[in-house]
Amino acid sequence: MLRAPLPAGNLAAAAVAVAVIAAGLLSTPAPADASGHTAERSLGAALVDPGNEITVTVSVHDFGLFARVSETLPEGWEYTGSSLPGAAVSMEDRTVRFLLLEMLLDEGTFTYTVRASEATGTYVFSGIIEDSDRVPADVGGENEIAVFPGALGEEETCLRGPVLAGGFSLVTAMAAVDDLDDCARSLDVAALYTLKDGEFVSWVAGAPESANRAFLDLFPDGLPPVTALFVKGGDPRSGAEARLAWLSLDGVRFGVFSPRRTEYAGVVVDGATNTTTVRGQATRRTALVRIESPDADGDRTNGRQPALEPGRPVTVSVASPDRSRTRIYRVWIADETRGVGEPAAGCLRGDIEPGLSVVAFAGGSLEQLEDCARSLGVVALHALVEGAYATYIVDVPDVVNAAFRDLYPYGLPPATPLVVVKDGN
User: Fold this and answer.
1) Is residue 48 within 8 Å of 151, Cβ to Cβ?
2) 415: closest CA among 45, 47, 124, 43?
3) pLDDT value at residue 384
4) How many helices (H) and strands (E) does the chain have?
5) SS3 124
6) Fewer C-beta within 10 Å: the chain N or C terminus?
7) H or E stretch covering 374
8) Pairing of strands 263-268, 326-333
9) Bridge partners of 67?
């Protein structure tokens, strides 16, 4: 929450005080021992779209007469404003410094806004607080956030990806999931699995908490965003209720469509400019098909024509005849040379251990995927689609990876879940 502007007299007094404090902080040597002052950061989100703004809240306590908080922004992020007066804020490279007086704070907090990087990946904030004696302490609280295109779209379900009725699939949690029962029920998921130290750890829908204890201990606060998981689908008889039989986008090439596969990367072809006509049909006659992406030209007589924006999806949803289940299909618009997005340091999200791990790729071309894997010591990657694995092995001839390349001819969508193999040597 932004603090209301200070009256002119108070603002002038604050500016003078800030100048005095700044001079003192520059000239006073820092003592060796820490005191009891604290600062805690809240990012307000675990996911953000590329280039979007978030508001960061910092709570400070027990800092004495005045303090300075220095926040170092992730690479590619931009500071855009603060609830503090301009005289209390300064910048050096990626570090933003905030001079604090009690009179400038709103119940012990201040906020600042930042614009996210345009590159997908995982980013880390860091900072310190110095009290009036220049004693430093780390800023605690939240420090990690993921950038994924379309990560928080209104059409989002608790898990992104297909749920293969009666079989196994790979999916990604695209928002924090703190109620596994509700999530499982909404998607007809019978069980969730993760990998830890090379062993499967399971959560079974409807089972007593004691039976799922090992899984719950791994995720005591619920599933974090961009957590890749195996899932087992429920009753096979209900699997076709919310599916597309076919999907076409005029002027967009995105490979072979399958009703069981929900995420695609596609490229614009045939001279298409900025819009395309979307057509699709459900496998069940009474299912409801909706094109969720906005109509760019506003003319409903010529069909739904979403704008084609690189790094953004064209989204279609299918609701079952009884409206109890919804499946979402996305075609992410990619650059033909670099796929969707530009993976940063966090190109594979998740703990990568020797042997097998399940992770989420930030999205991009096959060349970017291979560069990412090589940098992290990953020697092979596996996608699980329609109950079968497609494998990509690092540093082998293209013909060996033909099945994987056929599956992702224009790159991988953001947050694609993969099983990776890391050499233990």
Assistant:
1) yes
2) 47
3) 94
4) 5, 30
5) strand
6) C
7) helix 366-375
8) parallel
9) 100
% of residues, the chain, pLDDT over 70: 84
Q: Are 316 and 296 in contact (CB under 8 A)?
A: no
Strand partners, 321: none
Strand pairing category for 140-141 and 38-42: parallel
The structure tokens listed for 243 are 């599916």
Question: How far apart, in whole angstroms, are the C-alpha atoms of residue 100 and residue 63?
Answer: 9
What is the spatial distance between Cα 190 and Cα 49, in angstroms, rounded to a whole number?
A: 31
Q: What are phi and psi of 190, to 5 degrees?
A: -90, -30
To which residue do tokens 């049909």 refer?
281
Rounded CA separation 326/212 (Å): 27
- The separation between CA 238 and the C-alpha centre of its own chain, rounded to angstroms, equals 30
Q: Which residues contact 148 (CB under 8 A, 6 or more apart)?
A: 47, 49, 120, 174, 226, 341, 362, 363, 414, 415
Size of the chain in residues: 425
Q: Are 30 and 136 in contact (CB under 8 A)?
A: yes
Residue with tokens 């006073």: 28
Give Dmax (Cα) for the chain: 76
Q: Enter the pTM of the model.
A: 0.74
Q: 126: Cβ–Cβ under 8 A, 6 or more apart, which residues?
A: 71, 72, 138, 139, 143
Instruction: Strand 416-422: give its sheet, edge to edge.
Output: 348-349, 355-361, 416-422, 378-385, 388-393
**Residues 48, 145: contact at Cβ < 8 Å?**
yes
Mean pLDDT (whole number) for 258-266: 92
Q: Tell me which H or E stretch contains 316.
A: strand 313-319
DSSP 28-80: SPPPSS--S-EEEEE-S-SEE-TT-EEEEEEEEES-TTEEEEEEEPPTT-EEE
State the Cα–Cα distance between residues 99 and 16, nearest whole angstrom.
12
Could you report the per-residue pLDDT of 50-84, keeping only the tens digit for each?
889 999 999 998 887 889 999 999 999 999 999 99
Which residue stretches of 203-263 are H helix? 213-218
